[in-house]
Amino acid sequence: MLEETINFLNIDPEGIYVDATLGGGGLSEQILHNLNEKGKLISIDIDKEAIEYCQEKFKYENRIKIYNSNFIFIDEILKKEKIEKVNGICMDLGVSSYQIDNPERGFSYIHNGKLDMRMGQSGTSAYDIVNFYEESRLSEVILKYGEEKFHKNIAKMICRQRKIKKIESTKELVEIIEKVVPRFNLGHSAKRTFQAIRIEVNDELKNLEITLDKCIKLLKTGGRILVLSFHSLEDKIVKQKMKFWEKECVCPKSFPVCVCSKIQQAKIINKKIIVSSDEEIKKNSRSKSAKLRICEKI
After folding, report:
1. Which residue in 90, 163, 197, 257 has a CA-CA distance of 20 to 30 Å to 68?
2. What does the pLDDT look like over 142-195, one tens digit per residue?
3. How far apart are CA 267 and CA 221, in angstroms?
4. CB count, 10 Å around CB of 13?
5. Which pLDDT does position 282 carry in this prediction?
6. Are residues 33 and 106 in the same domain?
């Protein structure tokens, strides 16, 4: 949804923008095309390989500053750049095609590789979660973040198998899951479990909530935040945050007068969620689940 994102970002040629999920640099490149020599772009990504690729891609571009960091530190990065407010912030919450297609990163349930799933290069990996979480905690993660109804049986089977031999590859994990989850026409048997483990590894939902709270404070009046999500848990958080920003009062309906003193922070631009066109889905099947929400600071 690159074209829609650029259109709704409503770019001021002299403005300051943040691409909080740089990835392969496609969005950053389009933002730069819409900026003049006074404009500025701050691009962030936790993935070192994405950073290295984009540093080479934009090596002759002086309007962009690239940071290898989690977007949860967006406020600290802008402070370092001596920037108080920005004109727009974009967040694409999907795992990049490079990460999925590179077996060494361990994100894919299609390609075999070591169990990893870290978007950065440090911290707890999928291997740690699969091999060392207690069965009850593992089951809870798969249910909470994967919404997988076979979570108990999957956790039980994983724990049974790892007593025999530690689970080291994505292929091994897929084979375990396929023994438990029936094959449906609604996607791969391991899809929900892999999603759950990836979210747990990278603490994605907690980081998203914290970052959204920071983003609304960092926007100028009239500035916009655009968030592209790819599964229901992310989209629910984004939707709830934007609805909260738009409300003038959060008192219980039973209260005769407002006592919360809340003020409206933003307005939702797209009351109807924006999804990928049939044409885009044909070009990229991964865009099928994409949902775009936009809010404007007031």
Report:
1. 197
2. 999 999 999 999 999 999 999 999 999 999 999 999 999 987 656 789 999 999
3. 11
4. 10
5. 81
6. no
* Statement to judge: residues 226 and 135 lie in one domain: no
Domain of 172?
98-202
Encoding tokens for residue 191?
A: 């899809």
pTM above 0.70, yes or no: yes
CB within 8 A of 60, min separation 6: which ones?
A: none
